[in-house]
């Protein structure tokens, strides 16, 4: 993927999808050397000569929506050309427009209008992700996952990401925080059982079991965002559990030592750690995790996996 083919020149990155499609790096790979300079001309290309985009972030395409688009193309034709890069003689690869590409096949077309652009693998990935994000029918989780891929696979900072997608850093961060939710809640966002507003309220609940309980109640009772926010606020305002007698009976020095150790453990694991001990030096350590990925991260620190 893109991580195995880092680009040496990044001047073409950083100015959004339009600029990426217009720019052409001075040095390209052998397979890109045949690509003509970008132009505004539209080329008619055989559908059979076009490969799908291996960096396409969207895996599922709604069959009914594709059929509707196909019927529209039969009547209206392709209004917006697709964008491709040339791999070789009569060999192309999609950069953007896979729905139009697939719908044209369904409509029985043999050719499709296309712009030919120069792009290396990392630019391909970035353009595909940004084009995907700009679609109106993405759910919040799909947007969050695309943001995360831009950060990790395209080596972007949050400020750069905000510039790419035209969002401020706060908005970008709000989407990224969704990925810290448990898998069940993420699936609920993906399947449109809850909205972005519901999810943002649930993020403020630290206890995973309580998060899931509120999520289940939200889905079953079809609670509004305001109602969920009220439930979370009420939950967070509950008084903390009183310390056990064995913990409170510790001398001040031992309490201080346990507190410092707890802070060190929290810093080491990058997560809230609960450490309890009694006067006989018996106790427990709890390390909560928010998702399967977070659990794997903790297990890797412990060198268990």
UniProtKB/TrEMBL annotation:
GO CC entries: chromosome
Keywords: Chromosome partition, DNA-binding
TM stretches of this protein: none
This protein's record includes keyword DNA-binding: yes
Gene Ontology biological process terms from the UniProt entry: chromosome segregation; positive regulation of sporulation resulting in formation of a cellular spore
GO molecular function list: DNA binding
Domain ParB-like N-terminal per the UniProt entry, residue ranges: 43-133
Domain of life per record: Bacteria
UniProt similarity note: Belongs to the ParB family.
Official protein name in the record: Chromosome partitioning protein ParB
């Amino acid at each position: 993927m893109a991580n195995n083919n880092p680009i040496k020149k990044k001047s073409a990155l950083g100015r959004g999808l339009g600029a990426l499609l217009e720019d052409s790096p001075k040095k390209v790979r052998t397979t890109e050397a045949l690509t003509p300079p970008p132009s505004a001309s539209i080329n008619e290309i055989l559908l059979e000569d076009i490969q799908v985009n291996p960096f396409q972030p969207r895996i599922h395409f709604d069959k009914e929506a594709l059929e509707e688009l196909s019927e529209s193309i039969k009547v209206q034709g392709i209004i917006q050309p697709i964008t491709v890069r040339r791999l070789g003689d009569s060999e192309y690869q999609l950069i953007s427009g896979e729905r139009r590409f697939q719908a044209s096949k369904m409509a029985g077309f043999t050719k499709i209008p296309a712009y030919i652009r120069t792009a290396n693998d990392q630019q391909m990935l970035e353009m595909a992700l940004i084009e995907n994000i700009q679609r109106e029918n993405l759910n919040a989780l799909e947007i969050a996952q695309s943001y995360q891929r831009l950060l990790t696979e395209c080596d972007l900072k949050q400020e750069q990401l905000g510039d790419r997608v035209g969002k401020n850093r706060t908005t970008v961060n709000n989407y990224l925080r969704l990925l810290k939710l448990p898998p069940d809640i993420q699936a609920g966002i993906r399947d449109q059982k809850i909205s972005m507003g519901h999810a943002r309220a649930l993020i403020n609940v630290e206890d995973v079991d309580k998060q899931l309980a509120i999520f289940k109640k939200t889905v079953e009772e079809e609670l509004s965002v305001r109602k969920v926010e009220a439930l979370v606020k009420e939950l967070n305002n509950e008084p903390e559990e009183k310390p056990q007698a064995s913990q409170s009976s510790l001398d001040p020095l031992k309490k201080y030592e346990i507190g410092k150790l707890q802070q060190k453990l929290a810093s080491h694991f990058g997560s809230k750690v609960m450490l309890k001990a009694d006067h006989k030096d018996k106790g427990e350590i709890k390390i909560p995790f928010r998702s399967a990925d977070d659990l794997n991260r903790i297990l890797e620190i412990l060198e268990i996996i």
